[in-house]
Amino acid sequence: MDKNKVIQAATKLVQKGQLDKAIAEYEKVRKADPKDVRILLKIGELQQKKGENVEAARTLLDAAKSYASDGFFLKAVAVYKQIVKLDPSRIDVNLQLAELYQQLGLMTDAMTQLQQVANHQERGGQPEVALETLRRMVDLDPENVGSRIKLGELFAQQGKTEDGLRELRLAAEHLKSHNRLDDYLRVAERVATLAPEDLALSRELAGCSSRGGIPTGRSPACR
To answer: What tens digit of pLDDT does each residue of 48-77 get?
Structure first.
């Protein structure tokens, strides 16, 4: 097969608006050379023009994987982001993006992708899977107290009270050590609700009051 001639024929078909025939020609090249990312991108582009977004996402996924396997991580990221726009239901792509961002040292971007995955899993009635994603977020960024609180709350909702308390206590300690006292009190009150037997915490909270959002009282947490 003369690859260049086939590509030229496909290009002419595109110019004539015969997209199906053009795709068929490009598919011949794809079959002969599956690693030619340019052809994959072109097929994906034509599928988008036809409004076949799901099919385009599948085609572009092969291109993104090829880029990633060859070490072209930034190019892979660009294609993966395009796929997410075409088919937002592909949370597997969000996970791939999170992996790539992590390899690139872009932790904030990785966390954003994982948060989207966790939200999708919760909305889809998959709390156990969401727990694993949130756990991964906490492992990736232990200082992200919001993720830890969410993990603790989801544990509690699933009846895993001890696991929930562990995460919420760690979050509370972090907030307290960073003088985020209003936030600390909110989390501590949640801990007290889940662990009413924690008399020391109950006494601490009883010694605190909030006036205009400013904690006051004799407890160390309120200083």
So the answer is: 999 999 999 999 999 999 999 999 999 999
